[in-house]
């Protein structure tokens, strides 16, 4: 393999300048095909060992990071497995696979970016440690206001009843908001380890729907769960995380509609579809959640998974939805999958969750 010829074909990597960096060429499956001396040095192993390994043996969530770098056309921060070592990785997709260019993240990132990452990490840890301090007083307001609304505090006049119901509703909404904000902080902190186990994803989906049955009946919403012919319902991944993703997506839709249909379909996409999403080849499960009455604009779609962007836009009323969906995105990436949304004008809105099935 003539690596220089391959590199010269790329438009985003200057060969003469890039070769001093740590360079790795891996195929679409993530198997390492070629490395330079600098790569062996930063991975702290021999070139021979690297050439008998996959890139996933050395860095966390490599295929997601590769896809992000290609999509965003910029470097992504890469963490080495089991180490507090970070590098900037720039990716160029070629016919043979991917050219990965590693540079010391501290050396090429300005201090403001490094400090910002540290501040964000510290912020998330701070919020998680204060979780009970944030939730306990709100729970008290919810509990006592509900008790007063039920008449346990004595008889109230109509005006007082009206006020106490407003207090109860707003405190319940605030409780939900705080819970989802803490959930986002937890997923951003990456403190949860994926625990793979075998489970029935069709049965899990039906269980999540049953759990929300009272809510969608009150809203005159019908929910249908289906699967394609020959669908493989037994999968291996983190059941708790998949359940949380399903619950969050269903909550997002139920809070946005008052009537209509929600259809959840499970399928096994083919290799061509997986390849189109720049994911590693393998067995995958595709969850499609569609609503006939949730219609979104282009502005909505731009901020769907980014609460930090939405607070500076005209869509601030949807910040809670963006917080929940940002958590969903983080959780799906934890599973080495991807999530996206599509909206057809005057038809429906569909959320797609694509996760690998490690069951064999």
Give structural notes:
The protein has 360 residues and is α+β, with helices and mostly antiparallel strands. The chain has three domains: 104 residues, Beta-Lactamase; 78 residues; 160 residues, Histidine kinase-like ATPase, C-terminal domain (Heat Shock Protein 90, 2-Layer Sandwich). It is 47% helix and 21% strand. The protein has 16 helices and twelve strands. The chain has a five-stranded antiparallel sheet with strand order 2-1-5-4-3. Strands 7-9-10-12-11 form a five-stranded mixed sheet. A two-stranded antiparallel sheet has the order 6-8. β3 and β4 form a beta hairpin. The longest helix has 32 residues. The chain is globular. It starts with a helix and ends with a strand. About 6% of the residues have low confidence.
Topology:
Blueprint: H1 3-9, H2 15-18, E1 22-26, E2 32-35, H3 37-42, H4 47-50, H5 62-72, E3 76-79, E4 86-94, E5 97-104, H6 105-108, H7 111-129, H8 131-149, H9 158-189, E6 197-200, H10 201-211, H11 213-218, E7 221-227, E8 234-237, H12 239-254, E9 260-267, H13 271-276, E10 284-291, H14 298-302, H15 307-310, H16 319-334, E11 338-344, E12 348-356
Parallel strand pairs: 7-9
Antiparallel strand pairs: 1-2, 1-5, 3-4, 4-5, 6-8, 9-10, 10-12, 11-12
Helix pairs in contact: 7-9, 8-9, 9-16, 10-12, 12-16
Please provide a brief summary of the model:
By secondary structure, this protein is an alpha+beta fold.
Salient structural properties:
alpha+beta, Heat Shock Protein 90, globular, 16 helices, 3 domains, Beta-Lactamase, five-stranded antiparallel beta sheet, 360 residues, five-stranded mixed beta sheet
């Amino acid at each position: 393999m003539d690596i220089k010829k391959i590199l010269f074909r790329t438009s985003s990597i200057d060969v003469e300048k890039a070769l001093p960096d740590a360079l790795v060429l891996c195929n679409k499956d993530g198997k390492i095909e070629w490395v330079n001396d600098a790569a062996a040095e930063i991975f702290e192993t021999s070139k021979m060992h690297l050439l008998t390994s996959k890139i996933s043996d050395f860095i966390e969530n490599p295929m997601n990071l590769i896809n992000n770098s290609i999509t965003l056309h910029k470097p992504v921060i890469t963490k080495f497995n089991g180490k507090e070592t970070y590098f900037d990785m720039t990716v160029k997709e070629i016919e043979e696979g991917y050219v990965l260019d590693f540079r010391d993240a501290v050396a090429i990132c300005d201090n403001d970016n490094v400090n910002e990452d540290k501040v964000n990490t510290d912020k998330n840890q701070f919020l998680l440690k204060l979780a009970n301090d944030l939730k306990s007083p709100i729970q008290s307001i919810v509990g006592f206001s509900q008790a007063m609304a039920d008449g346990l505090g004595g008889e109230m006049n109509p005006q007082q009843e009206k006020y106490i119901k407003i207090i109860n509703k707003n405190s319940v909404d605030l409780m939900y908001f705080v819970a989802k904000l803490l959930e986002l902080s937890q997923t951003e902190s990456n403190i949860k380890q994926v625990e793979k186990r075998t489970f029935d994803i069709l049965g899990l989906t039906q269980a999540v729907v049953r759990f929300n049955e009272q809510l969608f009946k009150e809203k005159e919403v019908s929910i249908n769960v289906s699967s394609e012919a020959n669908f493989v319902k037994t999968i291996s991944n983190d059941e708790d995380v998949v359940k949380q993703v399903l619950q969050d997506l269903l909550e997002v839709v139920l809070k946005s509609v008052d009537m209509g249909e929600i259809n959840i379909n499970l399928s096994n996409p083919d290799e061509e579809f997986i390849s189109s999403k720049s994911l590693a080849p393998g067995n995958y499960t595709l969850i499609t959640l569609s609503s006939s009455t949730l219609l979104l604009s282009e502005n909505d779609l731009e901020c769907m998974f980014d609460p930090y962007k939405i607070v500076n836009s005209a869509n601030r009323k949807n910040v809670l939805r963006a917080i929940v969906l940002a958590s969903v995105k983080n959780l799906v990436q934890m599973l080495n999958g991807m999530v996206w949304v599509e909206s057809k004008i005057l038809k429906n809105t569909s959320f797609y969750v694509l996760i690998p099935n490690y069951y064999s």
